[in-house]
Amino acid sequence: LFRHMTGVGGRPELIIEGHVDGEWREVPFRFKPGNTSRIPGFIVPHQPRLDWQMWFAALGQPGSAPPWFISLLHRILTQEKTVLRLLGRGTDLPKWLTEGEISGIRVRKYLYHYTNVSEGSLLAGPFWKRENQVEFLPELNRADPRMKHYLKQANLWESKKTAKKRRKRRRQDIASPGIPRALHYLREGVSWLEESIGHEQLVWLALLTALCLGSALRACWRAFRRLPVDDGWDKELEENMKRLERKKMQ
Fold first, then answer.
1. How many distinct structural domains can be found in the chain?
2. What Pfam families would the database entry show (predicted)?
């Protein structure tokens, strides 16, 4: 399994394409290989969950895909913001993906290879070369009954009525004071930070903040332990206890 995934003999990758204005355009991902001229990203210590799952999906057979992948295609077609946020920051995504009308979507499977230095610029690329292997999934659109049937079987289909109820319930949770409201604002704050500085930078910021807080607490504890002990207070307490015992005996 990992022999194929790590690129021995070529790395399989799924490329999602959206049909906009009469032409097919590639859906960009934040980290996984796509555009051959884009330099591979630095992700440590962040683990991009979606890109990681796409890696496994590429090992499947053409015409078959896991339920989550079909759900991903449906949500890209409907341009759901929470899913588009996983593909990249708003400023990095092309306008056709966020604002355009996507009439269809399909998936092609490519085999990626690293290029040699002689095949491109060290800084400008291309960093990959790829060969088109096969059509992984044929064209699908919003009204395609196959997509709706498949998602219903996997309990991933959400009707307009159900979606409306979910949004209403969420608004009620946000409006009422308590933990749901606090979690909503916490999530919005984290999302804003992620949009501003990126996933991996946000993880580094959280780790450094935790490290600084831990160091500060440790320093405070050490300083507290070095404080002089007031023996006078202990002696006074002991004398008071002895007086009480003598009174009880009398």
1. 2
2. LMF1_C (PF25179)
